Amino acid sequence: MQAVIDYILQNGFVLFLTTIYTAFCLYIGWYFKKKAQSGVGEYYVAKREIPGWVVSLAFFSTFASTNTYIGQAGMSFKYGLSWAWVGLFWAIFCVIAWLVLGPHMRNQTARLNSFTIPDYFHFRYKSNLARSIRILSAATILFATLWYMTGIAKGCAHVLTSVLDVPYAWGAFLIIFVTCAYTIWGGMYSVLWTDAIQGIMMFAVAILMLLLPFIFVGGIGPMMERLSDSVHVDAKGAPLGNGLLTFGSLVSFLYILGIGLAVGMKQISEPRCLIRFYSIKDTKSMRFAMIWTPVFLGISLVCVMGLGALVHGMATPEEAAYLVKNTDEVIGFMLAKFDSPIISGICVAGLFAAGMSSLASVILIVGTAFVQDIWHLWKPLPAKTMINRTKWTMFVYCLIVFVFTLYPPAGIVELTAFSGAVFSASFFPAIFGGLYLRWGTDMGALVSMITGIVVNIVWRFGFRLQYESLKDVHEVFPSFVIAFVVYLVVSKLTHHRKPDEEHLNMVFGS
Amino acid sequence: MDFMTAFPYWGIILIIVVNAWVVSRMQFEIRD
Predict the structure, then answer these.
(1) Alpha-carbon distance A313 to A253, whole Å?
(2) pLDDT tens digits, A221-240
(3) Chain A: residues touching B (Cβ < 8 Å)
C-alpha cells in the first residue's frame, strides 16, 4: 500500500494530466459516435463539413509525430543546429501540399464522391485497369502502415515506461487501444477533432521545450558560449569545438537533403495527410488552413529541430558521450535534468498527443483501404455493413500492430523510412497528374506506381547499401524523378486510354 | 553561428510570411 502511495505522490501530476487527456479523447469519440454512424461519407470523410482551423491543426498533428519530437529533435544533439535545414524542407513541402494539392483535391474528390486515395485513382482514371491501381495502392497502404504504427507505438510505450514506470507491454496496449477506441467510435469526426486538440498541445509543448535549455543555463548568452567551444565529443570521439554552430562540420548537406525530402514529401503523397483535404468545409476554411498550417508546423519545427544541440548546454562531458550514441534519449534526458514534475507532465502529455494523433489517422486509413478499396470492390456492401466491417478491420489491425510492438522485427526504422519513399514515388505522380493533366491515363498511373516501388528497392539494396559514395543519396531522389517521368511518357504514349470528355469535364469542373 | 546554420530558422519564418501573402491573393473556390 505504501508503495502505491509513494508512486502516486511521485508521479501524481503526470498521471493526472495523462488521465484527463485520455478521458477527453475518449469523450470526443463517444460524442461523435451517433453522427459518424449515419453514413459512409460521415464515417470516412466527416461529410466534408469540418472547419479550416480543425483541419489545419489536424494536418500538422498528423504529419508531426513522436518521431519529430523525440527522434528528429534528438538528432541535432549529434548533428548540431544546422539539422534545422531538415525542418526547412518539411515546411516547404507543407506549403506545396496546401498550395498545389489542397483546393484541387477537395473539389475533385467531392465531384467524384471519392472517400479514399485508392478510390480516387479508380474514379479519376475510370477503367478496369484503374480498378487494379485502386487495389495495388490499398495493398501498399496496408503493408506500409504496419511499420509506421509499430514505430510510433514503440516510441510512446517507451515514454510511458521511462516516465511512469508502466511496464512496456501495458504502455503499448494503452496507447494502441485507447486510440483505436475513439477512432472506431467517431470515425473521421473523432480523428479530426482529437487531432486538432492534440495539435494545440503539440504546438504549446514545442515552444515550452525550446525554453527549457535556455532557462537551465541562464539565457541565450551563456548557452551560445557553451555551444561555441564545446569540450564534448562527436560520434567518432573527436572534440566538437564549435561544430554545433558550424554548417556542414558534423553532417553532410546531402544527408540533410535526403531526410528533408524523404520525410517532407510524405505531405504531398501519404494518404494520412492527403485525406485531410477531403474533409474541409468551404473556401474560407480552405484559405485559413492554407495560411495557418505552415505556421503551426513551421514554428514547431523552429523550436524542436535544433533542440538536441541546445541540450549540450545541460549535459556533462560523460553524459554527452553517452547521448551522442543514443540520440532517442536526448529529450527524456533534458526533462529529467530540468527536474520539474509539472513541466515533465505537460511535455509527456504533448509527446502522447504527437503519437496518438498520427496513430488515429492511419488506423482509419487502414480500415477504409481494406473495406472500401478491396472488400467492397470484390463484393459490393451496403453502407451500414461497410461501417461495421471498417470498425472490425481497424480492431484486428490494431491487434496485429500490438503483437509487432511487443516483438518488433529488426530494422523497423529503416522499413518506415523506406515505406515513406515508396509513397512519394508511387502515389504523387498519379495524384498530381489526376489533378492537373487531362491527358493523364490509367496506364501512366499504374506503370509509374510500379516503377516507383521497383526503383526504390533497386536503388536501396543495389546501389545505396553497396557503394560508400552513394550512402547519403536517399532512394527518394531517383525513384521520385523516374516515376514522374514514366507517368508523363506512358500517359503520352497511351493517350487513347484517357477517360471520355464528358467524364473529364465533370472531374475538372469545366 | 554561421550564416548557413542560421538560415533555416529565419528561412521558415520567411516562407510562412510569403505563403500567407500569396494565399491571401489567390483566387479559388471550394464548390451533391
Answers:
(1) 24
(2) 999 888 887 878 777 787 77
(3) 80-82, 84-85, 87-88, 91-92, 95, 98-99, 103, 106-107, 110, 224, 245-248, 280-283, 285-287, 290-291, 294-295, 298-299, 301-302, 305-306, 509
Q: How many CA atoms lie within 13 A of A190 on its CB side?
A: 30
Domain architecture of chain A: domains with CATH: 16-410 (1.20.1730.10)
More confident residue, A96 or A21: A96
What is the 3-class SS of A195-256, one letter each residue? HHHHHHHHHHHHHHHHHHHHHHHCCHHHHHHHHHCEEEECCCCCEEECHHHCCCCCCCHHHH
Nearest residue, CB atoms, A103 vs list B8, B11, B30:
B30
pLDDT tens figures, B13-27: 999 999 999 999 888
CB-based burial of residue A224 (10 Å sphere; 0-12 exposed, 13-18 middle, 19+ buried)? middle
SS (H, E, C) A470-496: HCCCCCHHHHHHHHHHHHHHHHHHCHH
Angle at A437 between CA A297 and CA A113, to 5 degrees: 70
Determine, for residues A87 and B8 on separate chains, whether the beta-carbon distance falls below 8 Å: yes
Closest CA to A323 of A411, A232, A239, A246: A232
What distance in Å separates the CA atoms of residue A74 and residue A331, rounded to the nearest whole number? 6
Does B32 have pLDDT greater than 60?
no
| B21: nearest CA partner in chain A | A291
